[in-house]
Amino acid sequence: MQRDNTTWINDLQSEGEQQSAALQDLREILMRILPKALSRWLRPDDPHFDHLIEDTTQETLLRVLDRLDTFEGRSKFTTWVYTIAVRIGLSELRLRKWQEASLETLETSSDPEETSFSRFAAAKPNPETATAQADALALVMTAMEEQLTPYQLKVMQAVVMGGEPLDILAERLGKDRNTLYKVMHDARMKLKAHLELTGHPPDELLALFS
């Protein structure tokens, strides 16, 4: 189905089958374009590549749902989503240190400014930063336990903290993927509102891990 910018926004902001169909279409687009986009940083034959694509797609869909109100329409909606997806993919490479498996590829890139290993390597935090990171994680975990429903907490713990692929979790719980996307989206929005209300802006917490 072909959608213009307005249709994408309307469909993703809707409920039920209309939103589910839009999410599925957007997922198919990402799964088609991300392998080529990220193959310059990680070889497709790397054992982590498929997981990178799946995790990046999953996180991108959640991020897009969270930020629909920030889309200004200056480009095609899918271009905006693509930009978000590539940034998330590169963050996944850095955070999981998957770049170590393809260091040779990164170091022999024709554009060292774009693919420098040091750009993705996460430095070991000093003791003060490590303590701040631990406090931030404890704060978020406490907020999850206090603010989320038992089902939201179960899903977030499995996917976000446990790293369980959404497909496997959906099969295990007898749910479809888009239902779990909605559960995670609602949980994230609830956490964001609570953290901001209590004087802990999420952006500031995330900055501790940058």
Describe the structure.
The protein has 12 helices and no strands. The N and C termini lie far apart (38 Å). The protein is globular and about 45 Å long. It has 2 domains: 5-120, RNA polymerase sigma factor, region 2, helix turn helix motif (Rna Polymerase Sigma Factor, Chain: A, Orthogonal Bundle); 127-207, Winged helix-like DNA-binding domain superfamily/Winged helix DNA-binding domain (Arc Repressor Mutant, subunit A), CATH 1.10.10. Helix 1 (5-13) crosses helix 2 (17-38), helix 2 (17-38) packs across helix 3 and helix 9 crosses helix 11 (177-197). The chain has helices spanning 5-13, 17-38, 49-66, 77-96, 103-107, 112-115, 117-120, 127-147, 150-161, 166-173, 177-197, 202-207. Mean pLDDT is 79; it is low at 97-123. 71% of the residues lie in helices and 0% in strands. By secondary structure, it is an all-alpha fold.
Please give a quick description of this structure:
By secondary structure, this protein is mainly α.
List the keywords.
71% helix, 210 residues, Rna Polymerase Sigma Factor, Chain: A, Arc Repressor Mutant, subunit A, 12 helices, globular
Shape: globular
- CATH top level of the largest domain? Mainly Alpha
Query: CATH topology of the largest domain, what is it called?
Result: Rna Polymerase Sigma Factor, Chain: A
Written as H for each helix and E for each strand, in order along the chain, the element string is HHHHHHHHHHHH
Helix count equals 12
Number of domains: 2
CATH architecture of the largest domain: Orthogonal Bundle
In the predicted model, the low-confidence regions spanning at least 5 consecutive residues are 97-123
Structural category is mainly alpha
- End-to-end separation: 38 Å
Helix content: over 70%
